[in-house]
Write a structure and sequence with these properties.
Number of strands: 14
CATH topology: Nitrilase/N-carbamoyl-D-aminoacid amidohydrolase
CATH class: Alpha Beta
Number of helices: 7
Strand content: 25-35%
Helix content: 10-25%
Structural class: alpha/beta
Order of helices and strands: EHEHHEEEHEEHEHEEEEEEH
CATH architecture: 4-Layer Sandwich
Number of domains: 1
CATH superfamily: Carbon-nitrogen hydrolase
Low-confidence stretches: none
Mean pLDDT: 96
Amino acid sequence: MPTADLRVTLLQTDLVWEDPVANRNQFETMIRNLATETDLIVLPEMFTTGFTMNAPALAETMEGPTIAWLLEMARLKQAAITGSLIIKENEQYFNRLIWAQPDGDLQYYDKRHLFRMAQENAIYSAGKTRLVVNYKGWRICPLICYDLRFPVWSRQLSNQPYDLLLYVANWPEKRAVAWRTLLAARAIENLSYCVGVNRTGQDGTGIRYDGGSAVCEPQGETFYLPENPEIIHTQALSYQKLQEFRERFPADLDADAFVLA
């Protein structure tokens, strides 16, 4: 059981449309300029390209430059780093979240719920399994954007519990109310911290994003980052505070039993 806080750094910024080199350079500058120590650095969804359906032209492999870059950044800051990008594997494309640790450990999660309103489901293959990472004694469940709308997929399970629910996203400004509402709801219903990292700016299709990256406590109290071209925010999450709340309000003991298909 962890005794230390988990220091989580949210990197919220605009993305350069379909330009992996420019985006890696931008995030590397932000990471190198971190003024405080951290345990976990969180990047947005498709952080190298923006939310694009141009997978054939932009996909990388698990041996590609961005995976190597993530491992390099993790070693540089001695912190885990996560975000999603386009990966090609076995002739399929995935919106894949990568979890890279400073010791070289690499894990991933493929987005389960593909955003059909942008035809993501016609280009990418859906993931089939959820990931819970054990890191510094914390159990962390990282998910991607549209997954936020599906509470069954993110639900606490007795055989796969977590302490922090994490969403990386490209969530449009016009649905900002849903973003804010659902992040808090996921924290409340799962007696867990919930962190969401979103982008800002406008993408190559004209869709605008207003940031609103957030840290939600299990009671639903939420801190939001404002819209800004570039924000670096580090917040410590208290495991002791989480456990005290769970002991004081053990709603999970009355949860309905079910199995994910």
